[in-house]
């Protein structure tokens, strides 16, 4: 009996890996209300044993292993929607996508027009309010496409975002942005990373301020995860006091690398939301870029060759391995989401 009890957790882990060893994967596109094309990557549970391939890989970054266009597993699945950072893309958060798909989640990640690696159109970048709307439209698409991705459990929908993506998902949670408040704060902190892109995103222009002050809350979302977000000082305290869904706020310990102060960004968010709904933690050894995908050996130098200075995205804390950071993050994020959504993965059925 002691032998069985001692090794049960290992058996449960192996069972989960066996059921969803590699997620299904599809890429789709749709046009938003203004005609902008949005590319979406989707990972989802499958029991298929098809041909695997690595997606999201390039000379600098590692990819993740999937089964393209596999049949989805029957039954209801929670939905997690991801939002990348400024000029990032769906590949940046693929490490958490495959981990959550392995637990039974459908995971969808759009490329936000104007602020993605592959579309940096200045006019679209200035429509920052479109970002949370992108996520809401992706939720619409996922819930209407059970044959492609599996059936979404509409009572178990969550959103996760990194950097500007963190700002995006907080908008969806009910936080309201005051552009004038943010601009005033930047007068005191002109070198802060998010203040440096204020003009590029048109935050200091009156027409944008009116749009940004509106509510983009999506009440279908039941939990939110913010990874080292930016632009937090623009959120009004009143709106954050009104948030009534669980929020996990994770910040980088090495915040100076991207000039995003944990105390002024994630810390401010946590203080205003309060401990009833907010859970705040600083990730030891993590930089702002540790929340992105894994870099290959020599990637920093390779990136700097083509774009001097951008190799910083491969830097973590001294002696810290990004893979290990990701493993810790996966444990924290999955535990939070499973608890907040009251979801039990298929492996739990063996306990």
TrEMBL record:
<feature type="domain" description="Serine aminopeptidase S33">
    <location>
        <begin position="79"/>
        <end position="173"/>
    </location>
</feature>
<keyword id="KW-0614">Plasmid</keyword>
<dbReference type="InterPro" id="IPR029058">
    <property type="entry name" value="AB_hydrolase_fold"/>
</dbReference>
<dbReference type="InterPro" id="IPR016986">
    <property type="entry name" value="UCP031982_abhydr"/>
</dbReference>
<keyword id="KW-0732">Signal</keyword>
<keyword id="KW-0443">Lipid metabolism</keyword>
<protein>
    <submittedName>
        <fullName>Lipoprotein signal peptide</fullName>
    </submittedName>
</protein>
<dbReference type="InterPro" id="IPR022742">
    <property type="entry name" value="Hydrolase_4"/>
</dbReference>
<keyword id="KW-0442">Lipid degradation</keyword>
<feature type="signal peptide">
    <location>
        <begin position="1"/>
        <end position="21"/>
    </location>
</feature>
<dbReference type="GO" id="GO:0003847">
    <property type="term" value="F:1-alkyl-2-acetylglycerophosphocholine esterase activity"/>
</dbReference>
<dbReference type="Pfam" id="PF12146">
    <property type="entry name" value="Hydrolase_4"/>
</dbReference>
<keyword id="KW-0449">Lipoprotein</keyword>
<keyword id="KW-0378">Hydrolase</keyword>
<dbReference type="GO" id="GO:0016042">
    <property type="term" value="P:lipid catabolic process"/>
</dbReference>
